[in-house]
Amino acid sequence: MNVKIRHETPEDRQAIWTVNRSAFESDAEANLVDALRDGGYVEVSLVAEIDDEIVGHILFSRVAIITKVGTVEALSLAPMAVLPSRQRQGIGSRLVEAGLEACRDQGFKMVVVLGHPDFYPRFGFSAELARSLENPFGDG
Ligand SMILES: CC(C)(COP(=O)(O)OP(=O)(O)OC[C@H]1O[C@@H](n2cnc3c(N)ncnc32)[C@H](O)[C@@H]1OP(=O)(O)O)[C@@H](O)C(=O)NCCC(=O)NCCS
User: Fold this and answer.
1) Of 21, 34, 47, 81, which is most buried by a Cβ count within 10 Å?
2) Residue 26 in contact with ligand 1 by CB distance below 6 A
3) Which atom of ligand 1 has the smallest separation from the CA of 24?
4) Cα(first)–Cα(last) distance of the chain, in Å?
5) Is 23 in the pocket of ligand 1 (CB under 6 A)?
6) What is the pLDDT of residues 85-110, one digit of tens each?
């Protein structure tokens, strides 16, 4: 299976919406991607392509972490999605790895994620490290 990971282009917008809609079985995350993009918050947006079809997507957008000694600029990984028929074939992992590398290349030092506790630790995310962070969405 030849999976190509690349940055999104304006022509990908509809396909990215469809991948998110299919993976989450709801419009919410697909519309969130459009809102973050339109709002100018997106720093990294990658797609996974097989034979010119977009089968996966990952988004990193700017988030401010407010501390007692100032504000830290970080990125938030959300959402990410792989078409249901293509899940559990390693595509999501490739997207996370390539995405984190792109974040590093762009000079970002911190990425936070709210998501599956079984999936993200393998890429270095740690619930322990994030314990002191509060977010508007509850635990995760
Ligand atoms: C999460 C998701 C992006 C992973 O993509 P993927 O291509 O299936 O991921 P990979 O094949 O690289 O890795 C599979 C691993 O992801 C984990 N995983 C996949 N889907 C999962 C799910 N719904 N819940 C928990 N873990 C899941 C499993 O631990 C699996 O590991 P295993 O194969 O060793 O058991 C994909 O399942 C998806 O789009 N899910 C629906 C949308 C979603 O929940 N997005 C994430 C929001 S936090």
Assistant:
1) 81
2) no
3) 42
4) 33
5) yes
6) 999 999 999 999 999 999 999 999 99
**CA-to-CA separations, 130 to 24, 104, 124, in angstroms, rounded:** 25, 19, 12
Nearest C-alpha neighbor of 112 from the set 81, 135, 138: 135
Protein residue whose Cα sits closest to atom 48 of ligand 1: 115
Q: What domains lie within the chain, and their CATH numbers?
A: 3-123 (3.40.630.30)
Cβ–ligand 1 contact at 87 (below 6 Å): yes
Query: CA 106 from chain center: how many Å?
Result: 15
Give the tens place of pLDDT for each residue, 63-92: 999 888 889 899 999 999 999 999 999 999
| Cα distance between residue 135 and residue 72, in whole Å | 14
pLDDT > 90 fraction of the chain, expressed in percent and rounded = 80
Q: How far is CA 116 from CA 3, 28, 65, in A?
A: 23, 18, 21
96 and 58 Cβ atoms separated by less than 8 Å: yes
Answer whether 24 contacts ligand 1 (Cβ < 6 A).
Answer: yes
